[in-house]
Amino acid sequence: MKRLLVFFGVLVSVFSFSLVMPLTVRADDDGISHRRSRNIVYVTLDGFRWQELFGGATESFIAKDAGVADVAAVKAKYWRETAEERRETLLPFIWKTVAKQGQIFGDPSQNAAAKLENTHKFSYPGYSEMFCGFADDEGIKSNSKIPNQHVNVLEYLNQQPKFQGSVAAIATWDVFPFILNQPRSGIYCHAGITPIIGDDLTDRERLLNDLIADTVVLWPDNQIDSLVMQASREYLQKKKPRVLFIGLGETDEWAHARRYDRYLYSAHRADAFLASIWNLLQSLPEYKENTTLLIACDHGRGTTIRDWTDHGAKVDGAEFVWMAAFGPDVKPLGVRRDVSPTLSQIASTIAILVGEDFPSASPKSAKPLGGLFHE
Ligand SMILES: [Zn+2]
Prior knowledge:
Number of strands: 10
Strand order of the largest sheet: 5-4-6-1-7-9-2-10
CATH architecture: 3-Layer(aba) Sandwich
CATH superfamily: Alkaline Phosphatase, subunit A
Bound molecules: zinc ion
């Protein structure tokens, strides 16, 4: 019996060796190990529409009817004659830097609309789709604080020895610890209106905690963006995570509140934040020239003056999203044409941007966005 087991053991090891070898060779052929990107910072703008990303401010929404308090001031600030001028005015970093040196997906006028796979068109299903790599319409159909059963890409990376303890999520919305199943995934997760926790808080983090305590609570489940922007910049400098997700939420909140002016201001500030994060990364030796910035949203919104505020299964157009990538390995193709990406491709894109293969661990997850890399 014992001899038979030994024989079987030899068979198994020979068999598994022959299985493993071609995979290893294939990974090298794919060039993953030759890429420069070692780290990733992934930022989402909750419910920010492709219409403003590609076209800047929508003229008919700069109106009292869309909640704009000072129509003349918003026109002066964000209205320009052409779509190119408007989008550069609203989102200067994305259009002057990311679009020139990286790639942007989701422009329907270039035959490149980007879509959700889930049919719910709201946040938990959207974030689960982007982090787990597939839609689960039956299993994930509410924003309730239910721990996600599916493995997400941040959790997967945190399980790899070279990323362990170096994966973090900092977000305005307090449902992220459930979407990312923080107790199971073990990643650092700071979300919602609670203070920053830790026994190694910096002076700046202590000041941020005072500000969190002193700041009016606009939404009980969602912190204002500025505090999360500051918290994530500080965490980046303190812990130098290799994988950092930053979830901003004000674009969605002000849209629901029918305040097109504040929706535009929030997007403009988020763009300035992207620029400041990028500059910070380039000033730190751990990140300089080896870090990719990935940007996306979790769902679209309606298209008319009545329903631009909303999203969900019944809102036409809320299934359209966008995504952008920028970094040392991303080909400078600008606005991508003739492609049809889905939000579910984000998970394996995050992984491949740091040299890992998420679909090998999570076979249901969609493949990475195509054509990102220099060959
Ligand atoms: Zn929403």
